[in-house]
Queue: 3 jobs
Job 1
Amino acid sequence: MSGVFDSCFTTPGKMMPLDEARQILRDSITPVCPPKKLNLRQCCGKVLAEDVIAQQNVPPHDNSAMDGYAVCFEDLNPDGETTLPVSARIAAGHPLDRAAQKGEALRIFTGAPIPKGCDTVVMQENATEKDGFVTFPAGAAPKKGSNFRKLGEDIKTGDVILEKGRKLRAADIGICASINQTELSVYAPLRIAVFSTGDEIKDLGQDLPEGCVYDINRYTVMSMLESLGCVVTDLGILPDNLDTITRALKEAAPHHDMLFTSGGVSLGEEDHVKAAVSALGRINFWRIAIKPGRPIALGEIGDTPFLGLPGNPVATLVTFMTIARPMICGLSGRTDQSTPIYKIPAAFELNHKGGRYEWQRAYLKQTETGPVVELFHTTGSGILTSMVKTDGLIEISEKARHIQPGDLVDFIPYSEVSQ
């Protein structure tokens, strides 16, 4: 993994535009985990390491899309009723042992193979059967091929049905089952060690002395990482002691694909985390033109990347979703690294200074003309309830100056950046 962040360490001290930072990440990050074969049932949520190529057609034969009668379209009278003898019954899994003859109808059920000689299925709701004959009204089958599913209509042999880098969902597992794909090559999950530092930080269940706070960020970060499919090691809260922090990072680095923390590492601070990472490898800061968020610390210990996010709870979550998540997706082998954005009308007015990207917390409101987004009433980086009571982030471009009601704004749903 050595050199993953090589291009990250050439940035000058000026504020880096967000688009530039995103481009560096896209160009720099490559998968770091080895592929492995897993049984299909174990693959949901994993990242595909090889294209899946169909070795057979789906459906494997012509079949009926519904219960009805298989006929030859030419036998149907377009101007009046048609009556045909019903000469056979075809159920799913029980194909007819002969070709169909002109002038006959075959009772057929959904999914049953359609014999040669038939090219149309009349749905049973448009048919009346009596004494071995079936009668169809004019227009019972509006066109040739009605209710007829052709061999290979969904998938043809040789089709690439899933591409490398896709995070597999339930529907993907189903489509692999349809072509008898019993196992897949997927990337092993990223192994990430997470820790906090600070004598003022206390773990849950401990007493809270005056001047101290509970460790929020470690729990939110670990939860976000696990929702992305990572295997997380909790290193806990490391005391403010250089030797202890250095030893912990040195021991963890060889066994993990990334080291992750928030707070305690900032431009110009002589803190122990910064000193420990620098002593074991190297560290740099990206001063990205964004709000919320202070400089983001990037480094390496040996071949293992180190990432330090801002310490305020909201800033931690926002920069995780918009900066760290694309990085983690790339290291995991995913190709969908970009932050998903939707255009939604604004239900607010906002003046923006410009010159930097800004993320505002917002919630969706349903109106008679569709959804709109409304800003949360506070912008404080320490108000974590603002992330609980909203639905996503509005991304405001560095070029934006004024937003008024009805303008389309870029909306990032939390649900889209938590998986």
Job 2
Amino acid sequence: MTKFTPRALPVLIGSLPLQEHAAATELIMAHTPEIPLWPQLPVFRDEGMLRQFLPGLPGISETEGKLVINTEKDGFEAEILAFYEEYLAVAESGADLADSRFTLSRKEAKGFFTFLEMANRKKESLVALKGQITGPITFCTGLVDQQGRAIFYNDQLRDAAVKLLALKARWQTRRMREITETVLLFFDEPALAGLGSSAFITITADEIIACLAETFDAVRAEGGLVGVHVCANTEWPVIFDAGIDILSYDAYSFFDRLILYPEHLRGFLERGGILATGIVPTDEERIDMESVDSLVARWDLQTTQLEQLGFSRDRIIAQTLITPSCGTGSISPNHARKVLEMTRDVSAAIRSRQ
């Protein structure tokens, strides 16, 4: 699947509770210098999960602070036609991706540009770079039309949204690969925690896999590795069947649910898949309860169960990243700093045994 062998290096999940992008990037570089990522700061309105990647989609309207995709607004048909014309020009006719609507700007992603500048200065020490984008399921079930219906249920809007995300992910990957060969692009999919519930009863596994596959293909076209981050329990076979390179999950709280699918896990690891193991909790009460030693002990117990699938501990470590269970954007800066420190130190403790 991939020649990338992380060997329990630390990596983070995007959001931080800070107000300055340069300071956030410096903090990331200090704690995860081998595989840094770009910071998302939700204190800024434009850096929310939907807003950050929304520009470029036809039909955007906002009333009293609420975003909708209004298919009845004047000019919508012209907007959707222009969208597909530009998409086809980029995807099939060789038009310049960098000069299209399928990029990020400093307005909604200042952290990305700050990160690129700093990473370029530190390129000699890099193992990889990590980017992230809201996944198509979360995006399309979180955005609604003028009637309050999720755009996932409108075939045209869903298709446009998936194509928008796919090319924005492709652009991210291309920009990062200008600095280092190995790029990890994670699709953040908190909505997939709803799989199997009444909220998702009309959404099929095939529809989910098709949306993910289109975005994955765009990243792989630029030589990137694709991951999915789910910070709760989900129908894990659907994620594996989507053909991920990296599974990013909350190992602190949900490893016991993941291990219920041993055949899927075994097949994933046999193909060279990477577990981005979220062993460091990100809720404040649990952060205060835990230490590096207690988290390493928890990781040891989980790894013993993975060994029972037929893999050596060394191979499991080779195919593991150590991460927080989720982003830290909603906790205090002091707790966020502690999460970063514990992620770094748990990783160091595991790697010191090699």
Job 3
Amino acid sequence: MTDLDPATAAAADFYDQHYACCKPLFLEPGMRCTLGSPDRPKHCRFCGLSEPEVQFKTDAHALPAAFGRIGLFSNYECDACNSYFGKGIENDLGNWTKPMRTLMRIKGRSGVPTIKEPGGGKGWRVEYSTGAFQLSEYEGDPHFTIDEQAKQLRFELHRDPYIPVAALKGLVKIGLTLLPEVELAHFSETFDWIRNPDHSQSFVAEFPIIRTFISGPMPNDKVTLMLLRRRSGVTTVPYAFYVIGLGNEVLQVFIPSLSQDQCINGQPLSLVPFPTPGSFDAKAYGRPRVNTIDLTGRETVRGEKVPATFGFDGIVQPEADSNAGGAGQ
């Protein structure tokens, strides 16, 4: 077994001292896992209503279906809330994550999402089919830049319109679904916040999302979910967060609790990123890259561009068609 590098070991020690981890979920295609008891009457933790006031006929995804064909469902969400979130904050979350889901080859309901030049006309296109990416551009409208010396292909993808704080609410909803029943009382205001259609309403002062990107080929059909809660006696860190590992990305999402996070009110959040295993070949692909994402914006974002870089080993020129242009053809 390879020893952890000092930074990863220090991060692991930090989280071991400050947090306790619930049983992690390791999800892959073919599995079906349902959170919550199937006993009737069912109770919706999002609107607070129970059968027969509300119905539970639809399978509610604990993780949005756009995040992969992973069978993680929830008995905690009624049909009305499922529809409400699907048309609202989960749609914004889907638009925000779409470029990375395309690049990481994450198959949703309709396969890996295709991204093309906005406007509806003929233009560049990035799609994944038959086990490979198909990149298209048209003469006079170049989009892809090839750096043969660095062996890199560079381009930009466009995000569909989204409201940042709505996408943030979609991420927090996943965490609220993962919470054990005994924790729900600590998050009553958080449930109210994600259900509030008025995204202009502020909630907490700081709300960073920590993103770790792992370069290189990574599994695109597996998801890891880990819920962590602050240990008893610790008062210097946020109360709860969850970690989701999907493809090349690991997102660390805080689940704010106004009651349990009073001890850190007014203090700047300062956490080391959650330790990740990194690429299977660190020499070839380098160490994981970490950045902090701010999704607290309240206005619709349009035309946002996401830079992307692919590495390649070499360029192969297509062979000329021997029949092309021949007489009598």
